[in-house]
Design goal:
Blueprint: H1 4-23, H2 43-61, H3 68-86, H4 98-127, H5 131-152
Helix pairs in contact: 2-3, 3-4, 4-5
Length: 158
């Protein structure tokens, strides 16, 4: 059995620690996560997000011939959303002078036409089993996306 003085010292520490803990204020709440910046919800933005998801999948799997059927499904998603997006106007149009809007919309629609042509080439490459060409075309899709976003994407979405 432990000595009485050792037992008394242990109990004293336990009681003192409990008392100190009881007098501490409640721990501070964790810092709230920084709220995600809000941007305008638009149909064009939603369609572009769907295109981005399909593009990322294509980027990962374009080289794999075994995944060509799924790659063609992703190309179909790109085509569908590109065709729909081409009928819309970028949000940036609302942020520029009215005199410049028609020219911007015309340029945007032309850029979307370029994208549709590239998507057609990508579809043909997958159908022909030319995955090396498809990989290059996916890279071109990325380059065209970056170029288009520099010209037509509003700062509200960055």
């Amino acid at each position: 059995m432990k000595s009485p003085s050792r037992l008394l010292a242990t109990l004293t520490l336990f009681v003192a620690g409990s008392a100190a803990f009881a007098t501490d204020p409640a721990p501070a709440a964790p810092a709230a996560a920084k709220p995600k910046e809000k941007h305008p919800e638009t149909e064009l933005h939603d369609r572009m997000e769907k295109m981005e998801t399909a593009y990322k999948k294509l980027r990962r799997q374009a080289a794999d011939v075994a995944l060509n059927s799924d790659s063609l499904a992703q190309v179909a998603v790109l085509r569908e959303n590109t065709e729909a997006s081409a009928k819309l106007e970028p949000f940036l149009v609302t942020e520029i002078p009215a005199a410049d809007r028609a020219k911007m919309v015309e340029g945007y629609k032309a850029k979307m036409g370029e994208l549709l042509a590239l998507i057609g080439q990508l579809e043909a490459a997958f159908k022909a089993g030319q995955n090396e060409a498809a990989v290059k075309l996916v890279k071109e899709l990325h380059d065209l996306e970056e170029e288009g976003h520099k010209q037509y994407k509003s700062k509200s979405f960055k």
